[in-house]
Amino acid sequence: MVDGGNGDGDGTRVVRAGLPEEEPYAPPLPGPVLAAHYHLPGDPPPESFGPGRDPRGVPYTYGRDNNPTWTGLERAIGELEAPGDETARTTVFASGMAAISAVLLSRTKPGDVVVLPSDGYNLLIPMRERLEGYGVEVRTAPTGGDAQLEALDGATLLWIESPSNPGLDVCDIRRLADAAHERGALVAVDNTLATPLGQRPLELGADYAVASGTKALTGHGDVLLGYVTCRDEELAASVRLWRKTVGAIPGPVEAWLAHRSLATLELRTARQASNALAVAEALRERPEVSDVRHPGLPDDPAHEVAARQMRRFGCVVSFTLPDKGFAERFLAALRLVGEATSFGGVRSTAERRGRWGGDAVPEGFVRMSVGVEDAADLIADLRTALDVAGRG
Hints:
Strand order of the largest sheet: 1-7-6-5-4-2-3
Order of helices and strands: HHEHEHEEHEEEHHHEHEHEEEH
Distance between the termini: 46 Å
Number of domains: 2
Largest sheet: 7 strands, mixed
Strand content: 5-15%
Shape: globular
Family: Belongs to the trans-sulfuration enzymes family.
Pfam family, one: Cys_Met_Meta_PP
Organism: Streptomyces macrosporus
Low-confidence stretches: 1-5, 48-56
Cofactor: pyridoxal 5'-phosphate
Protein name: Cystathionine gamma-lyase
Number of strands: 12
CATH superfamily of the largest domain: Type I PLP-dependent aspartate aminotransferase-like (Major domain)
C-alpha cells in the first residue's frame, strides 16, 4: 500500500509518524511531558495551529491547553488520516466519546438538524437525547443502502459510521458527503473500526474524521483516547476550544503510549483483517451460526461499497447464535477469546452485544474482535466452543 503524498508505504509511515527531527543522543520518541504549567514570561502568544505541527515551536502555556506529548501524537495521526496534506489538524481527547461530543456539541445550536445513523454506536442514543434537549432536531436512518440521503434536506450536520458498529453495514461516504455539502451540511465520519490505514474519510469528502483511539489505533487495551482530524482551520479551532472548555484532555502518559503503539499499526491491522476474514469464512461453515458479517467476505452485502472506499476491512466479525443461552455457553467455553466490550486489540475478544441494550440485535448476536493470534488456533477454539455450547 503506497501513500500518494510522499511515496512511502503504510508500514514505513506508521513507524515514523509524528517523530521529531533526529538529534544526536536524543531518543527517537521523547518521553511523556508531565506538566500542569510552563514558564510563561510576559503576555501569552496567540494560540496558533501552524506552530503546533512542530513540537519545538509550540507556545505552551498551560496544561489544559497543550502539551508537547499531545503535539507529537496529533501530528502523527494527521499524517495518517491525511498523508501529505499540511492543512490537516488533529486534536486528541481523553476518549472516543469526548471526541464525538466535541464535534456534535460544538457545531450545533437550537434549531439545527443533525442526521445520525440509527444503527451506530449505542452511546449515540443518549447523545441524541442530549441534542434534542438542547433544541436540536435529530433524524436517524440506517447505514446500509445510503439511507441517510433521505434525511438530509435542511440538515446542519451528517454523522456517518461506516462500517457501522456492531452490524458492519457500509455506506458510500463520498456519495453521502457530496449530497450533504450540496445542502450546506457538514459531514463527520466515525473512522474507529477502519482506522486511517483502512479508510481515509477526509479523502472521501468528510469534514471531520473522528475515532476512538482506544480501539485498533492503539490496539493493546490499555489506553483510553479519542481524536478529531479536519482540514478546515475554523472547524479545528472550534473542536480544540471545546476540549479546552470542558477539559476533555488526555493524560500525557496515555498520549505517549498511543504514539508508541502507532509503530505497529500496519502490522497489527493487516494481521487482524486477514484473521477476521478467515474466522468469518470458518463460522459460515457451522449450521448453528447465522448472519455472519464481515465487509471482506466477497458476498457480504457491504462488500461492493467497502471495496471501493476501504483499503482493508477491519478486525470485527459479527454473527448470530440460536439464542441467549447458546451464546453465553459459547462465550464461556472459549479459551483464546476473552469476553470484553471493546474491539481492535491484539488479543481476540467477543461479547453478546444484546447484554447492553440499545442495539437492535437478536439475543444471540455476537460481536467478535479478532486479534493477532494464529488464525488456525482461533478457528479451532471457536469450533470447540460451538460444540460445547451445542451440548447445552
